């Protein structure tokens, strides 16, 4: 391969790694855990009292910005090693981060009345890219449409949410049963005394 081809390949690989692996890391390392165990993302990104164009894009509320920043950290961690592989790798990684940021803005435009044209729709469907209409689904029902950039993370993310919730439910039921048994034992002991 000539050097121009090698450079282009380097650029493309770095771009894809940050987009695909970064989205994986952010979805399973931040977004899904937030939905399962934490409050920040639900309180900010899923705050139904204000327009999500406002809270995802233009808000300067420190909590909203913190949620955005924490969601971006996995992408940055994935991008960091690519900065040691020369200028084309750096360019590809930076380009992916820029596209990722543009996609954040774009995927919140349904609030402003955006409707994806047929060509955009088929392009995104082909590459499994999240459309604003898809992400709108996540705002309507926070249990569906996970994945920032790619829709193929939605099914495994939903499976993970379902699995963890099932375990949480089971643990709660077991705990309640244990409490009931302890209460009965205490009552018996009190009666015997
Ligand atoms: Zn959103
Ligand atoms: Zn969410």
Describe this protein's structure.
With 193 residues, the chain is mainly alpha-helical. The protein has one domain. It is 74% helix and 0% strand. It contains eight helices and no strands. Helix 1 packs parallel to helix 8. The longest helix is centred in the last third of the chain and has 39 residues. The chain is elongated, with a radius of gyration of 22 Å. The termini are far apart. The model has no long low-confidence stretch (mean pLDDT 94). The structure holds zinc ion (2 copies).
Order of helices and strands: HHHHHHHH
- Share in helix: over 70%
Number of helices: 8
Mean pLDDT: 94
- Beta fraction: under 5%
Terminal CA distance reads 89 Å
Heteromolecules bound: zinc ion
Q: Which class of secondary structure composition applies to the elements?
A: mainly alpha
Tell me the major beta sheet.
Answer: none
Query: How many β-strands, per DSSP?
Result: 0
Give a nutshell description of this structure.
The protein is mainly alpha-helical.
Features:
mainly alpha, binds zinc ion
Topology:
Blueprint: H1 3-37, H2 40-44, H3 52-58, H4 62-79, H5 87-107, H6 118-126, H7 132-140, H8 154-192
Helix pairs in contact: 1-4, 1-5, 1-8
């Amino acid at each position: 391969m000539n050097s121009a081809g090698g450079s282009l390949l380097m650029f493309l690989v770095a771009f894809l790694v940050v987009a695909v692996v970064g989205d994986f890391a952010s979805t399973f390392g931040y977004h899904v855990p937030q939905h399962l165990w934490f409050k920040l993302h639900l309180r900010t990104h899923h705050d139904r009292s204000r327009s999500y164009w406002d809270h995802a894009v233009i808000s300067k509320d420190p909590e909203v910005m913190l949620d955005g920043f924490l969601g971006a950290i996995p992408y940055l961690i994935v991008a960091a090693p690519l900065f040691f592989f020369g200028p084309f790798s750096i360019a590809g990684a930076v380009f992916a981060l820029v596209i990722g940021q543009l996609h954040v803005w774009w995927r919140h435009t349904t609030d402003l009345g955006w409707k994806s044209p047929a060509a955009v729709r088929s392009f995104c469907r082909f590459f499994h890219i999240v459309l604003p209409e898809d992400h709108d689904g996540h705002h309507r029902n926070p249990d569906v449409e996970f994945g920032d950039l790619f829709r193929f993370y939605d099914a495994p993310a939903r499976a993970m949410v379902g699995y963890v919730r099932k375990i949480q439910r089971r643990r709660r039921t077991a705990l309640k049963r244990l409490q009931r048994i302890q209460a009965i034992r205490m009552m018996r002991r009190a009666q015997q005394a």
